Amino acid sequence: RFMHFGIDYSAGTEQFRLLDDTGTTVDVTLPAADYKSLEEVVSAIAPQLVGQNMAVRSDGNNIEFVSLTEGKDSSIVISDGLGSGQFLTDFGFTDGEIGQGVDLTATITAINSLAFPVDYSTTNAKFELVDEVGNAATITLSGVYPTNAALIADIDAQITASLAPPAGISGEIEIDPTADPIQFHSISSGGSSTVTINQISGDFLTGTGFESGERGNVFYKTVNDVLADLDTALSNIIETRTSVGGRGRALDDQEIQNEKFVFDMQTTLSVIEDLDFTEAISRFNIEQVALQAAQQAYSKVQNLSLFNFL
């Protein structure tokens, strides 16, 4: 997180360590300087990462270190390995913080789980799997499958038995061995990674909920992930708005109470200001005399008891 006013390291160099998924370690030294912008910091670090499996970039007010390995196997660790300076703290990192890559393989997932056993022995089910460059293999289901595992095993065996590209998809597409509903993955990763399923005959696609021509690719996956994140953020915003609204109503209620209190105080003050103190003192004296007379009369009446004559 870069401070808008810059950051001054002119008193001495800043040092930290980067470790990527290939085991490459780079000890980075940030030269002593008064850095006026995030780009100056990035420019000072970038040359030290040239030829390594990592890079540095700015993102808004943040600085990011990335592994050049694609996919979920990529990672990068930042640490105060040299024990020098405040760089990690100043830019919001923690010592030993790990950045993990995301899955960049295309996936298509069935909507429905099949009700086992399923019987394709009378009417075979055929479908086609196609990778990102058009290599295809036809899968034929022709038996009785007692479990999901048995069905997956048959499909996996046919994928493995298909020829390697360009004649088949062996080594390009795989079926998840445990997923229920069924999932197909592209083994290759990156922006071009895709897997497509096409109907040929039978009711496998209908039963599982796949659509003929359904394609999974990294772009759609990334967009879906972004939309999911946006949905989560929107939900948080709505919850915050609701919370703020509730607090706003509480403040409104308190304001009404305060206004009533102020009105009552002003009324009391007005009564006090309008009071004729001479008249009030005179009335008080009269009431005091009346009270004394009443006390004396009560005392005398108390003494008028027949027991006094016994």
Structure in words:
- The chain has 310 residues and is α+β, with helices and mostly antiparallel strands.
- It has 3 domains: 7-100, no CATH class; 107-212, no CATH class; 218-303.
- The chain has helices spanning 38-45, 87-90, 148-161, 204-208, 218-274, 277-303, and strands at 7-8, 14-20, 25-30, 34-35, 54-59, 62-67, 75-79, 97-100, 107-109, 118-119, 125-131, 136-141, 144-145, 173-175, 183-186, 194-201, 214-217.
- The strands form 6 sheets. It has a 4-stranded antiparallel β-sheet, covered by helices on one side.
Q: Characteristics of this structure?
A:
4-stranded antiparallel beta sheet; 37% helix; 25% strand
Topology:
Blueprint: E1 7-8, E2 14-20, E3 25-30, E4 34-35, H1 38-45, E5 54-59, E6 62-67, E7 75-79, H2 87-90, E8 97-100, E9 107-109, E10 118-119, E11 125-131, E12 136-141, E13 144-145, H3 148-161, E14 173-175, E15 183-186, E16 194-201, H4 204-208, E17 214-217, H5 218-274, H6 277-303
Total E-strand runs: 17
Question: Strand-and-helix sequence, N→C?
Answer: EEEEHEEEHEEEEEEHEEEHEHH
Largest sheet: 4 strands, antiparallel
Compute the number of helices: 6
Strand content: 15-25%
For this structure, the quaternary state is single chain
The unreliable regions are none
Question: What is the first-to-last residue Cα distance?
Answer: 102 Å
Q: Reading side by side through the largest sheet, how are the strands ordered?
A: 3-2-7-8
Gross morphology: elongated
Helicity, as a percent range: 25-40%
User: How many domain modules?
Assistant: 3
- Mean pLDDT equals 84
Q: Give me the secondary-structure category.
A: alpha+beta
Integer-rounded radius of gyration: 41 Å
